[in-house]
Each structure stands twice: as structure tokens, then as C-alpha cells.
């Protein structure tokens, strides 16, 4: 038998590729991003000059960033909607009825589609004379003809919600599968006993299903909250920040790769990281209380 | 009494299917429309709903034009290459890292595991600025390597393999050790074959993520002929080719098709793979 010190060497040898790559591309960026936030970085010659809190002072009073942050927080609205819908859909496809494999697949297709490609189709759905306008007119929710045509992605009052609907469409299948895993872990006898006791479907859902998948609900809510705060690829592919759809991370991207102001982008990124950590901490408290 | 119960059950069933179908329409309508528009050689109906959901004068003209008017095959080749090497790297790195975290006792194990898992809480998009600068220093901008290397080591794969290796009975490992197997032999001959389903699930997830990766390649890559599908097709469709919606939709159908075919064959692993990640 080998002693434990030889396992130590082997363990670190096996971990080395992962730790080196994560070191360079995951851990180092956290530190370097913090450093950049306090510097003026020139992408042309790679020099960084100390800038103190100037970037933070700038974004603290910049309306564009305020709006971006506000939009990112507003984006959290998608979390409860997507979670409730995903749980309900998971419940529906969990029944042992013909065709369920088909429905599960149909709901998962948006998940496995590239966001850029899905975005191109949705931009056409959202065209002022596109599918959504037609649907609204067919349901008589807006006037017929030209005056009922809405520029869904160009109107600042609704554009962000339209992007959120895209996020909902793209993500629901992912959470549905997670809930499905949770639902399948519930023993059938529990539900059968409740039926014998005369509990109706509504009661069974709230008194059996929801409590029993609570760990999954908490996990999915956490994942979905972080995803909502991180939302911005949707913005790139649908609106490019037009019509008041700047989110905090889109601001980061825009500052760095359009204005080449890497320092200011990094400072905004640090603020977003801070928000993510606070939201995670809040939700971890829920996890903690449960156990 | 019995009849009314049967009626109620039939109604409930009909209601369930109505809900299921309505939701399937919601998730699939963009693809159905894209397919119908792509198949219509006559584009005059594409903004006439619901008429446009059925192809007008069906033909493959627009699909043929995708290959002549866009470097579609080059994008396809790039996506294939980049996805292949990402899968190889992710599987090898995750298997190697998952084993000691699951089965070996060594100082620092918990710290390393917590540090890896903690990265899930950080918005990885913030890394794009530092990583861009790092790749610039390494001379890897506009290279295939640069476009995929940040995805090689990640918490998801390591966690998934650690979970899989923890399920394996200790007896198997002890028996191999008594036979004088090295740790690498134990990993390769005992752990990996038994964990094949988890490795398959990890490969499938990695493939879909790598195939669909948009943000990072779009930042790193500048040469058009080096772009993967998700970036190249997007750039072309929102740029000069946006003039023809029919062509755009045909290109989208062709881009989504490989993933769909692949998904059709591996569907159940998606579910079991996520299942393993939850537990």
C-alpha cells in the first residue's frame, strides 16, 4: 500500500491541467479584472496607468449605467415566471401518457439552439409587420392595419420585456428537465395515497409536489437568478442596446469592445459580480434554512 | 356516476393535451416558420400569416443558395473541428480532475473543490475582458485555439465526473490496487469504463455548448473563414445577406439541423446527464 504523500503528488498531477487552465482563464481574470477597474488600460500598447476610483465615480453618475443596472434588476422578473411555468410544464410531461417523449423534445429544442441563430428568427417574429403583430391583430388586441403595427424591439416601453420573452422561450426547457428529474424522485405511493384521501389536483400540487421538489426549486431559482443578472447575449443578438435595453453586462461588453475603454468596462463588471454574489448569498440562506 | 367520472377524466386528459400542444407550438413555431419560408421558392407570402406556415411553390432553391452565397461549408468545418477538440479536452481534463477529488485523500482537496464550485456563482462574462488581454499576450487572438481554450476546464464537467466516480464501489479500486495497478491504470481501466454513461452525457453537453458558443468566438475571431457556424451565419445574416429573408431562414434551418439530428439520437442522455448534475 502506498502512503498518503504519494497520493498527494498524484492527486495534484491529475488536477494540474484543470487547475492551470482554470487558473489562467477563470481565477486570474477575477483578480485582473479588479486591477483593470482601477486603471486606464490601453489595448494598443498594453499599458495600464493607475486611475484610482475614477471609473467607479464615472459610472456612479452615468445615466446609461444606471439604466443598465436598473434593466438588469428588472430582468429578474423573468425568474418567477420561468420557474412556475417550467414546474407546471414538467408536471404535465411527467404523466405516463403517449407522446411525452415528443413534447419533452419539443420544449428542449430552443435550449439546444445557438442563441445567435434563435435571435435572428425572433428578430423576424418581432418585426413591426411580423408574426407577433399578426397574432395581436388576429386576437383583436391591437388595431388592424398599419396603426396596429408595433415595432416590438424599437419601442423603449416594451423592448426589454420582448427580450425577456425570448429568454423565457429559450430557457424554459432547461429548467423543465431539472424539475422532471426532481418529480421522478417522488415515490408514486405518496401521490396515490393523497388521491385515496380525496385530495384534488390543486391540493396535491401545492401540498405534495411543491414541498417535495423544493430543493430543485431552490437550485433552479438560484441558476435562473444568476442567468437573469448575466443576461446580455440576448441583447447583442436582438437589440444591441437600442430602445432602453442596456443591461449591466451589455454595458461591460460595449465599453470594452466598442469604446475600447477596458478599465471602465472592468469597473462595471466588478459591480455586476458584486450583485451576483449578494443574490447568491441571499439564496444560499434559503438553502441553509432548509437543512 | 361512473359515466360522469369517465367524462371528467376524458376532459382532464383533453385539457392536458391541449396545454401540451399549445406549449409545443410556442417553442417550435419559429423553426416551423423558418422551414416553411426556406422551402418557399416564391417569397411573396412570407409575411402573410398564417399562410406563411405552409411553403409556397416548395423547392430547395434557397438552401442551394446558402452554399453558394455564404462560406457555409467552411463554417461547418470550423464548428466541427472546434467542437471535437473541445470535447476531447473537456473530457480528459474533467476525468483527470474528478478522480482525485472523488477518491483520493490529499491536503487541500476541499479547498480546491470549493474554489472550483464557487466559480459557478461568478458571472463568467466578466472574464471576457481579462481573457481577451491574456490571449492577446499569448498571440492567440483570431486562432481556433484561442476561441476554445477558455472552455476546456470548467466546474460543470469536473463536478459531473466527481459525482460519477463517487458512485463506484471502493472494492473495485482496492482490488486493482492489490493487483499493483497505478492510479492512472485504475482511472483508465476501472473508473472510466464504469462511468461511460456520465462521460457520454458530458460529451453531449460539451458538444452542444461548443457548437452553439457565440459570444467568445465572436470576440476572438476576426477572419471570416475561421468562424464557427453560430458566429459566421449570424454575422452574414445580420449583415449583407439580410436582404433576403428566405435565404436567412434557409441558412438558419441548415444551421439548426445538425444539432436537431444529433439531439434526436441522444435525447435521453440529456435528461440523465442533467439528472446526474442535480444530485
Q: How would you characterize the overall build of this protein?
A:
The complex is a heterodimer of chains A (291) and B (279). Chain A has 291 residues and is mostly helical. Chain A is 70% helix and 2% strand. Chain A is built from 14 helices and two strands. In chain A, strands 1-2 form a two-stranded antiparallel sheet. The model of chain A has no long low-confidence stretch (mean pLDDT 88). Chain B has 279 residues and is mostly helical. Chain B contains 13 helices and no strands. Classes of the chains: A mainly alpha (291), B mainly alpha (279). At the A-B interface, helix 1, helix 4, helix 5, helix 6 and helix 7 of A face helix 1, helix 3, helix 4, helix 5 and helix 10 of B.
Low-confidence stretches of chain B: none
The helix-strand sequence of chain B is HHHHHHHHHHHHH
User: What string gives the helices and strands of chain A in order?
Assistant: HEEHHHHHHHHHHHHH
Question: What's the Cα radius of gyration of chain A?
Answer: 24 Å
Gross geometry of chain B: globular
* Helix percentage range of chain A: over 70%
Number of helices of chain B: 13
Instruction: Please tell me the overall pLDDT of chain A.
Output: 88
- Gap between N and C termini of chain A: 39 Å
Biggest sheet descriptor of chain A: 2 strands, antiparallel
The total beta strand count of chain A reads 2
Provide a short characterization of the protein structure.
The complex is a heterodimer of chains A (291) and B (279). By secondary structure, chain A is mainly alpha-helical.
